[in-house]
Amino acid sequence: MNLSEATTRNLRAAGLDPAESEVLVRAALAEDLRYGPDATTEATVSEHSVATAEFNTRTSGVLAGLPLVLAVLDQVVGADRYRVEHASVDGSPVGAGESVLTVRAPVRTLLTAERTALNLLTHLSGVATATAAWVEAVAGTGCRIRDSRKTLPGLRVPQKYAVRCGGGENHRFGLGDAMLVKDNHVAAAGSPGAALRACREHAPDLPLEVEVGDLDELDEVLRQRPGLVLLDNFAPEQCAEAVRRAGAVSPETELEASGGLTLERAADYAATGVHCLAVGALTHSAPVLDIGLDM
Any idea where the Quinolinate phosphoribosyl transferase C-terminal domain is (predicted)? Predict the structure, then answer.
């Protein structure tokens, strides 16, 4: 079945490509339906049964993923066979026991769609919730929370959307929309400075970030006034010194701390004056937000 116009609009408003989202939803549904239809539901639920279902939170957090839930319902139920009676807004904080989505639809199709819809909703809401916790931890410092490419295969765009819902910022989406010079590039080029120069010559219009592993490497790249430097596995006191050196040599350069960061120490790093914290854990290991379907 095709996505409805309303679902398509909601996906686009979230920055999610409708065609890509449809492919994702179809693939997720195929995992449940590859061996045939929902045998348990067909055995126990009348084909004429219709009910109102609520997606209810069990714990508090930040919501993300409702446009994809509606895409699942469009595919399984059919856009003209269910009615949305209530829908919360992605990015909203939610408490335990809240209904974030209420729909009325045939029960068989609701139960068939349930797990796929919840898998997407709970995971993306978990990413948004984790991001919001990091954002709160650095509140008032001016430091920003950014994600990485450490995303689950096939879920990068939705996960990065969830990061935005939680108040975080997106790093690059792929290998061609920005350049990030890492240790292996440095090894190939001979030095951080040489790698930086090579990248500028190759693609002068692309955003460019360079990773440094110590203060000596930082000094080398600061002479070229890069837009962004990633401080890899720097301790807070090293970050503070990096901020001082950058301010003296290249004040327009932003500094991003990465590696070994924990939520408990986020405020310590933010207080050093770095501009961003790069947090891979937002997408590679965020716990789900507990949400269930009740009828």
Answer: 127-294
Q: In terms of domains, do 115 and 169 share one? A: no
| Domain coverage including residue 98 | 5-128+287-294
CATH code (residue 172): 3.20.20.70
How many alpha carbons lie under 13 Å from residue 243 in its C-beta half-sphere? 18
Tell me the per-residue pLDDT of 159-175, one tens digit each, with 9 for 90 and over. Answer: 999 999 999 999 999 99
Q: Are 227 and 207 in contact (CB under 8 A)?
A: yes
List active site positions. 115, 150, 182, 211, 232
Q: How many Cβ atoms sit within 10 Å of the Cβ of residue 236? A: 16
pTM > 0.85: yes or no: yes
156 and 114 in one domain? no
Cβ-contact 204, 166 below 8 angstroms? no
**95 and 195 housed in the same domain:** no
Burial-class residue 67 by CB neighbours within 10 Å (0-12, 13-18, 19+): buried
Q: How far apart are CA 130 and CA 285, in angstroms?
A: 10
